[in-house]
Write a structure and sequence with these properties.
The complex is a heterodimer of chains A (about 180) and B (about 210). By secondary structure, chain A is an alpha+beta fold. Chain A has four helices and nine strands. Classes of the chains: A alpha+beta (about 180), B alpha+beta (about 210).
Chain lengths: ~180, ~210
């Protein structure tokens, strides 16, 4: 009887350890995280719609129904990435995530010059490099310094009513996500 | 039972064998409790809606830290498992309600009134959601969602919203179907998304009006 109790106690102690280990390993090994879902939908440096409006199933979970969203994956070890989107929409906001879905940096249209979405994501080392001689065409861009390699760039845009749908769709579809030469 | 001289040459084979079986059984039991209990408890902890790191204001729950490096391990696991791309601080903050003021679970077949003031934000959106927190399918052209630019306000700037599957005067949030319902209220470009802003925020009440079962 005492040995049975001993085994159960040992089991409970083990359960605690397993609980902690499983919890800490889920982010490392999950194949359902946003990065994996996006990787199934498209390649690196390709803007992909996250909402269901563009057809097919939504890529990311729980996107606000009054929002359209698009995302691209990038790898900063290839070089810095530049994201641009033309057009005038009621509200847009941007988040940069690392590979495991942590929000590294976010900003919205009030932070941008003239509400134009033009942003560069780069590592601190690339930032030092580009600061030495900032090219003219990058003067107005928003620089996001992120100490990561792989990441995701997400644009969300508000659709106040049906009449805005084409405009907001065009805004996201014409957005570009490219490696910036320097 | 055949004698087993290798284990017990003394002529009493069953005693050491029983101890061995016993040991094997106890080891297996301990392992089963450890793996089953450990895995199951993680699954249960991730399944429940309010967990660690939640901030409750009235019936509304928010996870201001979700999706950041500062989040607790449970939020991080939930983000990884469900593929969530959480709103950043400069974007907005989402609140989820699953119960009314009486503490009863929200149901899609019931009518509710949401009334009160809303905190400062550029705008907000409100939608009725199912268990997976995606907007409920109404099967109609009208979305089960409202936003602050289209609502009518009362003289004191508060808002009264009727949640029902029948049209209602004023602000009407369409809901339809049967089963559990969640209300998701998201504030965009708001000072409350920084954690210090959350201390004296009041959110609207959710009062049940009636059910057509």
């Amino acid at each position: 009887m005492r040995r049975l109790l001993h085994a159960i106690l040992l089991g409970l102690l083990g359960a605690g350890i397993v609980h902690i280990i499983v919890l800490l390993l889920i982010p490392e090994f999950s194949e359902r995280n946003a990065w994996s879902r996006l990787a199934m939908a498209s390649n690196l440096y390709r803007m992909t719609r996250l909402d269901a409006e563009a057809g097919g199933t939504p890529v990311a979970k729980s996107v606000d129904p009054l929002f359209y969203a698009a995302a691209c994956r990038f790898d900063l070890s290839d070089g810095m990435v530049r994201v641009k989107a033309p057009g005038n929409v009621p509200f847009w906001s941007v988040s940069v995530y690392d590979r495991s879905g942590h929000n590294i940096y976010s900003f919205n249209d009030h932070s941008a010059t003239g509400k134009v979405l033009d942003s560069i994501v780069l590592t601190p080392a690339q930032m030092i490099e580009i600061r030495k001689d900032l090219p003219e065409e990058l003067q107005e861009a928003i620089f996001v310094e992120a100490a990561i390699d792989e990441g995701m760039f997400v644009i969300r845009s508000f659709v106040p009513d049906d009449s805005w749908k084409p405009t907001v769709s065009r805004f996201l579809e014409q957005s570009s996500c490219k490696l910036q030469d320097y | 039972m055949a004698p087993c001289p290798a284990i017990s040459p003394s002529g009493n084979p069953s005693f050491p064998r029983l101890i061995m079986l016993n040991n094997a059984f106890l080891t297996l039991l301990a392992l089963a409790i450890a793996i089953g209990g450990g895995g199951g408890s993680v699954w249960y902890a991730l399944k429940t809606q309010d967990g660690i790191g939640a901030i409750r204001i009235g019936q509304w729950t928010a996870f201001p830290d979700i999706g950041t490096q500062a989040a607790d391990p449970y939020s991080k696991a939930r983000v990884a498992r469900e593929g969530v791309l959480a709103l950043g601080q400069a974007e907005g903050l989402s609140f989820i309600a699953e119960r009314d003021t009486d503490g009863e679970q929200l149901k899609r077949q019931c009518a509710y009134e949401i009334e009160g003031g809303f905190p400062t934000a550029r705008f907000w959106t409100l939608y009725a959601a199912d268990r997976s927190l995606s907007v409920v399918e109404t099967g109609k052209p009208r979305l089960a969602a409202l936003q602050s630019y289209q609502v009518l306000r009362q003289p004191d700037n508060s808002v009264l919203i009727s949640v029902s599957n029948r049209p209602a005067p004023g602000n009407w949030l369409l809901s339809d179907g049967f089963g559990r319902m969640y209300l998701v209220l998201t504030f965009y470009d708001t000072p409350i998304a920084s954690s210090t802003g959350l201390s004296d925020v009041t959110l609207p009440q959710i009062v049940k009006v009636g059910c057509n079962a």
